[in-house]
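Appendix B. Raw example, untouched.
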Amino acid sequence: MSKTVLVTGGARSGKSRFAEGLAESYAPLRGYLATGEAGDAEMAERIERHRGRRGPEWQTVEEPVGVEAAIRAHEHRFNVILMDCVTLWVTNLLFRCEGGAQEALAQVKSFAGSFPYLNTPLIIVTNEVGMGIVPEHQLSRTFRDLAGEANEIIAAAADEVYVTISGLPLRLK
C-alpha cells in the first residue's frame, strides 16, 4: 500500500505547482499522468507551460479517460505519479460515457477504490468548483455536481488532502 494525496483549489491557486513540489520529494523517475487534451491553441499553450516546469526527471503519460488502467500499467516505472487533473478527467468521462454522469461517477468510485492496492505513491490534482454561483445551464450544473461528487469520493479515499489558496497550501486531512 502506498500513500495517495489529493490537492484541490480554485483556478490559478497554485495547486499544480504545490503538487509538483510534493512529487519532487520523491526520487526520479516521476510519472505525470495528463488527462487534458489540447482542443484549442490556448489549451495547447497551457499544456506546454506545464511541461516546461518539469524537467527530464519526469515522464508524461497522456490518458484522458482510462486513468485507473493507465496508473496500473505504468506505476512500477515511477517512484511517484502525479495525475493532473480530476476535473478534466470527469469532463472527458461526461462527454464520452454513454451512461453520462452516473457512469462517470462509477468510474471515479472504482478509481478511488483502487488506492489501497497501489504500489506507487499517487498525487492527484483537482479543481474546487463548488464555491461559485449555481450555473445557469443544465450541462454546467451536471458538470459542477459531478466534479464536486468526484472530489468528495477521492478526498474520502485519500490519505492526505490539501487545498491551495493564493499559492498557499492548507492541509485538510
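End of appendix B.
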